[in-house]
Amino acid sequence: MAGSLTGLGYMDIPTVEGVFGALSAENKRLLGDELAANICEAIHSRLDGTMPVSIVLVDMKGNLLGQKGDLTPWQ
């Protein structure tokens, strides 16, 4: 997905920070939300749905990159 959003190959941007840095604000959020959804689904599956799962992704500066689920308990 990152390659289609940046127009670059995965070898051109070797780090996650580089991928997000190469994206527009809108595409950062699209990719971040997609990653958060995939992580959330993997955890939910691993836990057999026994508890709610929420994911928030932030960069090294604390900027929100993506989210999935109810973040109210973390606020």
Describe this structure in words.
This protein is an alpha+beta fold and 75 residues long. The chain has one domain (2-74). It has three helices and two strands. Strands 1-2 form a two-stranded antiparallel sheet. A hairpin with a 5-residue loop joins strand 1 and strand 2. It is globular. It starts with a helix and ends in a 7-residue tail after the last strand. The model has no long low-confidence stretch (mean pLDDT 84).
Topology:
Elements: H1 2-6, H2 16-21, H3 25-46, E1 55-58, E2 64-68
Antiparallel strand pairs: 1-2
Alpha carbon gap, first and last residue: 30 Å
Radius of gyration: 14 Å
Largest sheet: 2 strands, antiparallel
Written as H for each helix and E for each strand, in order along the chain, the element string is: HHHEE
Number of domains: 1
- Helical content, roughly? 40-55%
Percent range for β-strand residues: 5-15%
Q: What's the helix count?
A: 3
What is the typical, i.e. mean, pLDDT?
Answer: 84
**Strand numbers in spatial order across the main sheet:** 1-2
Low-pLDDT stretches: none
Broad structural category: alpha+beta
Write down how many β-strands occur, each being a DSSP E stretch of 2 or more residues: 2
Q: What general outline do the C-alpha atoms trace?
A: globular
Key phrases:
75 residues, alpha+beta, 3 helices, 44% helix
Offer a quick outline of the entry.
The protein has one domain (2-74). It has 3 helices and 2 strands. It has helices spanning 2-6, 16-21, 25-46, and strands at residues 55-58, 64-68.
